[in-house]
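Q: Got a minute? One more chain.
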Amino acid sequence: MKATILVAEDDRNLRRVLRAMLVREGYDVAEAPDGEAASAWLAERRADALITDIRMPKMDGLALFRHVRERHPDVPVIFITAYGTIGDAVEAIRSGAFDYISKPFDEAELLRVVGNAVRTSAVSVREGAGGEETGGWFGMVGCSPAWREIRKVIEKAAASPLSVMIMGETGTGKELVARAIHGISRRGKGPFIKINGAAIPPALWEAEVFGYEKGAFTGAVTSKPGRFELADEGTFFLDEIGDVPLSMQAKLLRVLQDRAFERVGGVKTLTADVRFICASNRDLRKETGKGRFREDLYYRVNGIPVHLPSLRARREDILPLADYFLARSCAEMGIAGRKLSRETAEILERYPWPGNIRELENAVGRAVALSEGEEITPPDLCIALADTEEEEATPEEMRFHESVRDHKRAIILRAIRKSGGSKTKAAEMLGLQPTYLSRLIRILKVEG
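A: Always. Here it is, folded:
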């Protein structure tokens, strides 16, 4: 499926130029003449990245950025800046914007930044819970002994200047933990700059992290600070550190040792006062043994290890989390409050949740969208829950599983009807990949 780029720009000719460049690269492009129109568009659809000018009528780019950060935190925001507004763009990046492009911009630079943003967006959607959540404690909810231990470690890590390594399966909330450590530390009022090691191509890694000087490579029409430099007096969060290219690991080690670096194409040594937090869903100790991760870098980043348990290891938190996601989904969709039926609660507690908190969040959100009564019932959930392997199922269990399959067929048919027969739109409504929906239709023999 093509990525969708929303362009918010009041200059009609510039919008056309941006559209032509992006369409030529294979993107779907939507246009908005100002921030208000872009905000209205995002209320109905999802963009994989937003490109916005800073100076616009009605709602300017900075106000639009604040709106997107609050309502659509997974959408990367890229600013188009004139020389006089570069300072505004840099401050916005320190507050969570993805990147900026200076006018007059080079097409190669535009496509590089947009490509990085789209890859980061895809990883953000695919990986575990993260972003700027509201409610709970820094967006986290729990009452289990395991959660109480995590919170203690977070508070201790926040009080220390050491690097932090957050480890856990996909979907366990590693970015939320990083934000909590930053938020309650002495750097809490400084910038929180994040980058995903899996989203940046190896050839662009050094320029993204350390910045570059004018003329350093094709498309470098101006000098630009990197993410590490922008994190000065704040926190630099490197997610999926295990995906950092080996060629860059030595440079990362140096900057962590003495906080000194050079921009690409530069000769001046720069320094930054940065707290370093990283995360991985891999066992980096084993990666060092296989030669895929530097052992000296491992010991440098593993100052304070934070191990996040899977959701199946903290089952007491499943229903509190489900209630939290239920209330939030109802509020976002403008739906009167729903509640979980007793049978639904039992299913949620029994299910193994291989995708952890993010899978639970998506399951509850889909159930709210598909529900037709005041209670969330098992049929509302079943489309989100994979069939588990059963050994020597009893006749009663066989009848149960056939009933679940019937409900899945009904939910898929309902979504296809609501989407006017479009399986692609139905997949989007159900929060599924179109290929997976096609597979379900084939396996379940959905007809109609």
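A: Residues 85 and 174 are 34 Å apart (CA to CA).
Q: Perfect, thanks.
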